[in-house]
Amino acid sequence: MALMGVQLVVSLLAASIMQRMAPHCSFARWLLCNGSLLRFKHPSEGELCALAGKQMPKQNRRDRRQNGENKPLTVPKDIDLHLEKAPVNVIDALVLRFFLEYQWLVDFAVYATGVFLFTECYYSVVDASKEVNIGAIWCVLTVLFCLKTLHTLMSHYFRSEEGGERSVCLAFGFLCLLVAMLVLVVREDYLEFGLEPGFSSLFDNLEIFVKQQGYADWSGCFKLRIPVTKLTVKLGLAAVCAYIGALLAFPGLRLAQTHLDAVQMNSDRPLIQILLHMGFLSPVIVLVLWVKPIARDFLANAPMGKTSVTLVSSEAFDSMRLWMIVVSCVLRLGLTRYHLQAYLNLAQKWVEQMKKEAGRIAAIDIQRKVTRVFCYLTVVSLQYLIPILLILFSTLSLKALGDFSWSTGAQDTPGVTPAIIMPTAAPVLSGALDEDEEGMEDMEEDIQATVARLSETFTALRSVLTPLFYRGFFAFLTWWVAVCQVISSLFGIYFHQYLMQN
């Protein structure tokens, strides 16, 4: 197995470029600070006093606090307040909460896409079936980093003193646990993830691996433990699904709010509204693509009177499904600016709502409310982008590790590896060597031993975790992320459209 090949060199080069270019050239920083997003500045106390028709106190807030005057400056709520707009620049973005996590994750996803595209071109030119797919590793790492970032955001909600956010996450987690347990008992005739063949391949290869490791007595009882083991794995998978559902609760609720505001913001642009609706409903399309009676059976056996016509072959449908998911993710990524601008407009929207109320309000409360919207810009960006990246990179992992093809009719049916052949280190010739030559020989032996161990590890992993297993796992992961986003976003639409108005 070629470990020190072209793929590894390109991977190390991409990692080095990402580390060195991040302070100077960052796609994540450009996405927020390219001048297209406009934030709202909070008004000063002098501006609020001028709008209220009163003279600004000579003492500032600090002097009043030192003199024991804790009474805040208040103004009427119905003042004619118009917030000043300003483009988001780099200096403003650097102080935002979770900006470093946002920049690192988005830049890593960009470089992971570049490495994946290189490996796809490399595999199309060179027969590298025995090499490790470095692009797939980058894609899997992106999925893990996305989940880690969502966990960081959710832990922030759990540390909140109010506790309302914690209750929402737990409620969505238990709801997704129930849905996952129902989904995992559905037969493959309806939801064609391929989990059952994948698990069978995994346990069969584990049995062979255990036998080759010398545990024949225990492996004799392995088949008796397979039903219990499958049940345990499915219960663990249901728990993971509940965890992912809790992570995607607030991103879905936020998506619903920004979608409604973005559609209203572009009321005079029907084409943008159509694209926004298509992007919002794209997870529903992903959900339907794995429902076999609706998707594959309908296209493979389309009813035409008393006969059935095959519109698309099975291999063509697999490729078409990958392309549809990638195109939907690209569409949603292209609509990022509209959603983020709709979120920033919440500051002006809150001011317009305040003008309709009676009474007085502290000037500091107006400033805090307007500033708080901008402070959470990177959090909202992560909540919008991470679900898209999860679906996109789990689909790319499905393609690379599941031996699918972008073109029709070019893929093979994955099978079960019949045996695991462990490579051994090449023998080293001994003879009369000088001291320098002995030192070089020892170094070569260490390198050969390290390469042999790595080769043995990757060979064992590729023999146990076959493409059949990867197809079932990443297909289910892609579908489940779409399901969680559909559930949370539709609930968010109901909440913002009906519950908030009552």
UniProtKB/TrEMBL annotation:
<feature type="transmembrane region" description="Helical">
    <location>
        <begin position="373"/>
        <end position="396"/>
    </location>
</feature>
<feature type="transmembrane region" description="Helical">
    <location>
        <begin position="271"/>
        <end position="291"/>
    </location>
</feature>
<keyword id="KW-0472">Membrane</keyword>
<feature type="transmembrane region" description="Helical">
    <location>
        <begin position="231"/>
        <end position="250"/>
    </location>
</feature>
<keyword id="KW-1133">Transmembrane helix</keyword>
<feature type="signal peptide">
    <location>
        <begin position="1"/>
        <end position="28"/>
    </location>
</feature>
<dbReference type="GO" id="GO:0016020">
    <property type="term" value="C:membrane"/>
</dbReference>
<dbReference type="Pfam" id="PF10268">
    <property type="entry name" value="Tmemb_161AB"/>
</dbReference>
<protein>
    <recommendedName>
        <fullName>Transmembrane protein 161A</fullName>
    </recommendedName>
</protein>
<dbReference type="InterPro" id="IPR019395">
    <property type="entry name" value="Transmembrane_161A/B"/>
</dbReference>
<keyword id="KW-0732">Signal</keyword>
<feature type="transmembrane region" description="Helical">
    <location>
        <begin position="135"/>
        <end position="155"/>
    </location>
</feature>
<feature type="transmembrane region" description="Helical">
    <location>
        <begin position="167"/>
        <end position="186"/>
    </location>
</feature>
<feature type="transmembrane region" description="Helical">
    <location>
        <begin position="473"/>
        <end position="495"/>
    </location>
</feature>
<keyword id="KW-0325">Glycoprotein</keyword>
<comment type="similarity">
    <text>Belongs to the TMEM161 family.</text>
</comment>
<keyword id="KW-0812">Transmembrane</keyword>
